[in-house]
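[09:14] KT: can someone run the structure on this one? pasting the chain below
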Amino acid sequence: MRMMIPRFAVLVALAVSSAFAAEPAMRPLFRDFVGLNGHSVVFKPELYKPVCGVVRDYHPTEWDLMGDTGKLPDWPLARNKVSWEKEYGSWHQAGLRIDVCLQFDNMKAEWKNLGPDAFAYAKSFAQNFGPGGKWPFVEWMEIGNEPGLYDDASYRVMFESMARGIREGSPKMKIATCNVEVGPSDRYWKSVDLFKDHPELYDVLHIHRYAIAEQWPVWRRTYPENPKVPYLSSVQKLLDWRNANAPGKEVWVTEFGWDSSTKKPDPKGDWAKWVGSSDEEQARWLVRSFFLFAAMGVDKAFVYDFNDEDKPQLHACSGLTRHYQPKPAYHAVAWMLRSLADYRFSRVMKQSLEDGYDFEFVSDKPDAPVIWALWHATEAEHVMKLTLEGRKVVRAERMSLAMDDARAATAEVSAGGDEIKMTVGERPCLLWLTPKR
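[09:31] RB: done, structure tokens below
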């Protein structure tokens, strides 16, 4: 599992409107946009396929190379006997697309010959499990997660060696960097400038972001639109860097989420002052983040995490399930994906901390309804005035928090000519409209 305690300075972010500056010509369908972080062996693909189209696996490289980095494993078995054929085959069978994040963060001292060993390992893995391989289940490979224990020079050797190995082993495999930020490298990320001179070696830049309002020892998180935290603004900086230095490369948010536990921390323990979010806050902030990232031009976004054991501490209760039982966030994300799977972001109709948010999503099918996502960042009830542009209302639903949440899935809409008034709140609503003729 990942271990991350980010160090963000609380600063005033860019104006919310600046977060939507880049406008790619075609956005991904939501079935290809909504991702989830998983973990080998303990991930249950049938349970999680309603809440994601893509799974990101924290793949333990040490399982494959245990004891000797110069000797390749007997594929499809890792050296500890885990079968990647069975593991990734079951994910693939469930209809999930797979992104493998190679976890070698704690292996620096174990490499016998860093460059050649990394090249041979990455080439062999891609050759066997990438497109065209014997077990072609993996579409993307990330070269490290948060490899801050490697200095920049060592990581560059690792990255370039693995990337060249992957390109040689499976030319159709897509390659992603480790977690990056605009600015200098740190313990949990590398500077994106490390990749500036080698655009041929990667296809995706990825970033981890958490909306943290208070740092250690509180770790209190806040709503995603909050301009006082470097959440949307840091992602936008990476998008801006991409536009200036690596046009055409994708940008993924590979970790974002909120902790929510039913328990209080031990008042005498290390996490005594930790403050979590409520289950409903987790649900609504995840769904709104997906909408916000889609509008910004992010290509994929992955919730952290898939499951938790209800531990009241940082990054230990961020699951969509708790003890493998769906939390409200699970039902909320499932509702969102079920509604928008065949839709892609189209345009921003309204974006205001004061007046609310209205984002449009469209299907590639010309006769399919248009869908508007509506919410207010901080108010439980806020009346929005909307112009229908010649369309008619088909139906409206409020974000679900439970299975078959019929009462929560109804929003009151009062029509009057081409304008309507709709009461929205912090729980997003979806409004289906007839296509414009």
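[09:33] KT: thanks! The domain at 344-433 is CATH 2.60.40.1180 (Immunoglobulin-like).
[09:34] RB: yep, looked fine to me
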